[in-house]
Write a structure and sequence with these properties.
107 residues, elongated, mainly alpha, single chain
Length: 107
């Protein structure tokens, strides 16, 4: 049984290696990653056992992050958009201080 699962894992890994990464193949690669995680879970826990995502699973699998993403947040000034983005991503976003008060002498 485990030899069959191991063979399926190797076939999926080979298909992932020969599949070109681009917008058109993202969905296909994602489904392959999901199948790979499921097979690895079955290899460790047995068929019908606890899945890697279940609450009491001893071990799980991480899918590596890859690619770049651009995010745009729209909102009122000085409400914490940059702080939220910095906290969620663990990176430093560039924020600019602007005054948005308009006086009659500035017009």
């Amino acid at each position: 049984m485990s030899e069959n699962i191991q063979k399926q894992i190797e076939e999926i890994e080979a298909e992932m290696a020969r599949t070109q990464k681009n917008k058109a193949t993202n969905y296909h690669l994602g489904t392959l990653k999901a199948k790979l995680a499921k097979l690895r879970s079955e290899l460790l826990n047995g068929p019908g056992g606890k899945s890697a995502g279940s609450k009491d699973a001893g071990r799980g699998f991480d899918v590596t992050k890859s690619g770049d993403t651009r995010i745009g947040l729209v909102g009122f000034p000085s409400v914490g958009k940059s702080t939220l983005l910095t906290t969620l991503t663990g990176t430093r976003s560039e924020a600019m201080y602007n005054t948005f008060s308009w006086g009659l002498d500035e017009i």
